[in-house]
Amino acid sequence: MHRVINRCTAKLHILPVRLMSVPSPRSDDTSRFGSPGKVLVALDTATPRTLHDRKQPDLPGQPFRGTIAHVTDGTNNLRLTVSDVAIEYGARRVLAGISFQVRAGETLVVAGANGSGKSSLLRVICGLQRPARGEVTIEVGNTLLRPLEALHLLGWVAPDLQLYRELTALENLAFFAAVRGIRCTRADLEALLADVGLGGRGDDLLAAYSSGMTQRLRYAYALLHRPRILALDEPTVTFDARGVALVERVVAQQRQHGITIIATNDPREERFGDYILRLGQ
Amino acid sequence: MDPHVSSQGISETSAPATLPAAPLLTAAWAVFRKDLRSELRTRYALNAILLFAVSTVVAISLGMGPLTTSRNADLPLIQAALLWVAILFAAFTGLSRAFVQEEEARTAAALRLSARPTAVFLGKLLFNLALLLILVGVTTVLFVIMLRVQVGNPGLLAALLLAGSMGLVAATTLIAAIIARASVKGALFAVLSFPLLVPLLTVAIQGSANALAGRGWESGIGSLQVLAGYTIALFTASLFLFNTVWES
Questions:
Q1: pLDDT of residue A12
Q2: Shortest CB distance from A162 goes to which of B4, B13, B105?
Q3: What is the overall mean pLDDT for chain A?
């Protein structure tokens, strides 16, 4: 993982990016935002752990909120932009004014307590949920896509993600490969299952899978089409040590291939990120 | 360590190559096959509709006994109405399952991320049609046997049942997708479907009565044309509206 990052940083230049706006709640709207003056969304400038040659940009008159790396290698033609996104459930506003941009080769960790809106943000990024305001765009080369137009670029692993329990793991993968237009053989799918640690268990019904095995299969589902943007919600939940190692390998590989967004409330998982977005503070 | 797991991560070669998008009909067929395989293993919908169909026909036969023309001159019309009512209410119990099951099992998100909406709609529609044709076949056979129904023009009756089933499926598949996330799914499905199905039922019952009475094909052509037009109109409207429903 470090080797990959070091190779990328050789071509790194720094862009100032407003990672998010933080609307201060109005004093007359405490029912939706909590007590006056409490910040709904806060930003950690994410002291880099792996990108070691960053600089603070000099931007007079503009508050510095964070930096983002621009990797100029072969995967540079990919950019995920979240613009002024707000998420509401009925009258309750969960997130507001979220804006950031992530480019190929980068990993963003979205951190926050339960209910802070991490999972909802990932669902919005993947097009599974409509934001109350704002938009998500994915730029590939000169093409600008909405998430629902870019399903072939998106992979999602989350506790919410359920596959068909009445089918076997191989039947599940074969089905999703067929609807995605992926030509593959049983051997291809068995190899993918082996990659995620489910070798030899492809003919078992999902109903017989443990929670850790189900989580591994979620990775197989998400990686089936080699997505350029991988959204991982609580990526190591239910995993043992070997499962955590799998996540590390997946994130390292994704660094060479595209963008990774990780939502977590586990501080240990923040090590995966080049940047950390803290919600709910 | 598993030989396929490299120290660098998921091996590049194990992930199959990606095409831009699956051909629509291929993806729709995959959805149909998946639903069929799931249904054959769980029998959520099949058991419900067959149980309802059998109990309805048995209840009618026990309550009314074998009907003969000497008892009522409008017998074919009554028989046709009873047959379609039995089919309709049995269909109400099962046709929404294709989408409701996706939402209840929380597999809809995986499907949304993987398949084009039109492929999902066509696959589910095909599955509902297969389910309904099984229902119609079983119900009709039971109906004819238990009520000792004389079918004067079996070919016309079969054509009307097929055309009526296609119309019923075209109308209810979109509604099943709409109600799948609602809390009172069963009631809502019937409430939303029934107004749409009134024209279909009226025409199908009238045409089926002609077939049971043994009238010629010319007496059923009009009904078949109306049912075909109804099916095409509802299918086209559903196809255009489904994207909005599925992605909302």
A1: 25
A2: B105
A3: 76
Domain count for chain B: 1
Q: Quote ipTM for the complex.
A: 0.84
Residue B187 lies in a domain: yes
Which one has a higher pLDDT value, A20 or A180?
A180
Kindly determine whether residue A179 and residue B22, on different chains, have CB atoms separated by under 8 Å: yes
Taking only residues 46 to 105 of chain A, the set having a beta carbon closer than 8 angstroms to any beta carbon of chain B reads: none
Q: Is B49 domain-assigned?
A: yes
Q: What would the two tokens of residue A123 be?
A: 């669902």
Residue A180, φ and ψ in degrees, nearest 5: -90, -5
Whole-number pLDDT of residue A281: 64
> DSSP 3-state assignment of B97?
helix
Residue B235 domain-assigned? yes
CB contact under 8 A, B16 and A224: yes
CB contacts < 8 A, A to B, total 136
**DSSP-derived 3-state class of residue B186:** helix
Q: Which domain holds residue B192?
A: 15-247
Contact residues for B57 (Cβ-Cβ < 8 A; gap 6+)? B86, B139, B142, B143, B146, B147
Nearest in space to A45 (alpha carbons), one of A55, A35, A36, A37: A55
| pLDDT, greater one: A29 or A159 | A159
- Taking the model in full, what pTM does it have? 0.80
Partner-chain residue, chosen from A126, A181, A224, that has the shortest CB–CB distance to B21: A181
Band of pLDDT at residue A170, cut at 50, 70 and 90: very high
